[in-house]
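Quick review question:
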C-alpha cells in the first residue's frame, strides 16, 4: 500500500424509521459532502483501488458519494463491507488497514468516530506530524473528514493532508 485515506462517514440523518442506528441514511447535505471529498481526492490524483467500509448504511452511502465524486464505479471489485467496522475501536480499524496492506496501492477506509478520529491522531503522531496538524485533529474529526497518508515500504504513515467538505482542511 502506498496511500491510506481514513474517512469518517458524511453527515447522516438523525434517525431511521426502521433498523435503528445502523440504517441511518445520509442527509442531503451528507451526500453532497461525500461527493465533495471524492472530487477533492480526484483533484489530488488519488484514486483508491480498495474501499473497506463499515456495514452501516451511512458509510456505504458515503463510499457511493466518494466514488461518484472520483468518477469511478463503486461496485464490488472496489468494495469490502465489514460489519466489524461499525463503531470499531482504533485498534480494530488498524488491523483492517494492516490486513489490506498487500492487497492494494491506495486504501480508503470509511467508518465511525471515535475510532476513525483516534486512529488518524495515532498515525499522525507516529508519523511525526507537526504540532499544528496534531492540534487541528486533536479537537475533532467532523463528518466527511478524510485524513490522507503516504505509506512507506515499512508500512509507516506520513501526513499528506486533511480533506473536509468545506475545503478548509479543519476537521
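Suggested answer, residue by residue:
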Amino acid at each position: 500500500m502506498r496511500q491510506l485515506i481514513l474517512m469518517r462517514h458524511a453527515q447522516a440523518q438523525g434517525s431511521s424509521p426502521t433498523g435503528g442506528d445502523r440504517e441511518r441514511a445520509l442527509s442531503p447535505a451528507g451526500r453532497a459532502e461525500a461527493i465533495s471529498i471524492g472530487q477533492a481526492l480526484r483533484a489530488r490524483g488519488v484514486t483508491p483501488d480498495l474501499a473497506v467500509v463499515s456495514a452501516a448504511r451511512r458509510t456505504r452511502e458515503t463510499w457511493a458519494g466518494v466514488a461518484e465524486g472520483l468518477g469511478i464505479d463503486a461496485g464490488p471489485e472496489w468494495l469490502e463491507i465489514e460489519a466489524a467496522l461499525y463503531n470499531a475501536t482504533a485498534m480494530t480499524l488498524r488491523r483492517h488497514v494492516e490486513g489490506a496492506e498487500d492487497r492494494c496501492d491506495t486504501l480508503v477506509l470509511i467508518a465511525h468516530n471515535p475510532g476513525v478520529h483516534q486512529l488518524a491522531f495515532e498515525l499522525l503522531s507516529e508519523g511525526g506530524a507537526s504540532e499544528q496538524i496534531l492540534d487541528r485533529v486533536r479537537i475533532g474529526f467532523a463528518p466527511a473528514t478524510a485524513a490522507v497518508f503516504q505509506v512507506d515500504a515499512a508500512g509507516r504513515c506520513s501526513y499528506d493532508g486533511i480533506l473536509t467538505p468545506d475545503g478548509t482542511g479543519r476537521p
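Why it works: The mean pLDDT is 94. DSSP finds five helices and six strands in the chain.
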